[in-house]
Amino acid sequence: MSSPTQFESTDMAVTMRVVDTYKGLLDLEKPWNALYQQCTRSTIFSSWDWAVSWWEVYKDQFKRSLSILCLYKGDQLLGIAPFQIEKNLAKFFIQGKTLRFIGTGEARQDTVVSQYLDFIVAPGYEEEMIQQVSNYLIKNKKEWDFADFEYLLSDALILKCFTDSKSVSRKQIEYGVRFFIPEMESPDEYFSNMNKRWRKMFNKKMRLLSRDGEVDVKTTRKDEPPAPFLSTLVQMHQSRWKDRTGHSIFDSERFSRFHEIILSRLVKQDKAAIRTITLNNKALASYYIFTDKGKIHYYQSGFFSEYANRYSPLFLLVCNEIGMAITDNKHFDFMYTDSADSYKKSQYAADYEQMYRLRWTTQPIRFYVFACAKDLQTKLLKFIRFINNKRTLNKRQ
């Protein structure tokens, strides 16, 4: 979209300004943070720290440009739609210029999975924001061809855009679920709600671990660099997943660099932590969380397989974190899972809610082409898996 722009709405007291430069993004830090704190629905993934960290790492992956729509009344920032426009040559003939939230659209092997993204809006201005964003995008529809928004919750404001528009076609689909721990009065209530099998295992493993030596949980500190904790987590994650799939997301240079940057920003604000459970000062398991506004988001984890069967250390670590969250009146969030049929339901007594994916286009034919391409891709992946499985069987024989 065009350089720093001001779009006058029908209400002349309200303006929509577009930030499309990195300097403009940096200049938004203070007003963005102030608005983020006002907006109770926004999570850490919509924070300025998250957006700027992601942009610093991924801005040169594909051809991207910022298109942050900012709603003002006078000099007061009332709303942010943190958009970018992506031109991915591999998908260009299918999707064209694609509108996305900042934090999404990476190459598959580099995916951060920024969740719950939405407009950041001052209380009372939600409907105004929906209308102004919709009006702006219709007036500037030559600047984008397609839009794709993933990991949306059911109350996301963006889902209300273009619900009856003749200029923009939309498709909304169910897209995995979010698992979370329901509100509890105490950790005792939580453990009583846990499946009997897992409650029994928790008690057994805790006794065994304590019997075998000195148990400690080490945590990143705001006045110390988080790099050693991240390094341990990466080793564990790779140990856990390379045996299963031959690949760890931390193999991605961009993904790893993003987390080095975001941790350096958030740990010192007490908005991120990596915790490691140790036995006799030997690391067993680690997990990585983001925390803000009374919510704890469980992001990544890992463990060394040599201790997994004996102690189930990650299970113990997570259960204790859930107990502490309940004590501190915080909500524990497991975030996105592709299916409601997950171990989190029985193992951690978690509940779930539906998540959504939303797509728009100004050229309806693109939805048909997109569906055909996805169908072809699915068939190709099935064929590749079939060939790989056949090769594996032949090698074993």
Please outline what is shown here:
This protein is of the alpha+beta class and 397 residues long. It contains 13 helices and 14 strands.
Q: If you had to describe this structure to a student in words, what would you say it looks like?
A:
The protein has 397 residues and is of the alpha+beta class. 40% of the residues lie in helices and 27% in strands. The longest helix has 32 residues, at 365-396. It starts with a strand and ends with a helix.
Name the features:
14-stranded mixed sheet; Aminopeptidase; 27% strand; 2 domains; 397 residues; disordered N terminus; alpha+beta
What is the strand and helix layout of this fold?
Layout: E1 5-8, E2 14-19, H1 22-27, H2 29-38, H3 48-58, E3 63-73, E4 76-87, H4 92-95, E5 98-101, E6 120-121, H5 126-139, E7 146-152, E8 169-180, H6 187-193, H7 196-211, E9 215-219, H8 227-245, H9 253-266, E10 272-279, E11 282-292, E12 295-303, H10 305-311, H11 313-327, E13 331-337, H12 343-347, E14 351-361, H13 365-396
Parallel strand pairs: 5-7, 12-13
Antiparallel strand pairs: 1-2, 2-3, 3-4, 4-5, 4-6, 7-14, 8-13, 8-14, 9-10, 10-11, 11-12
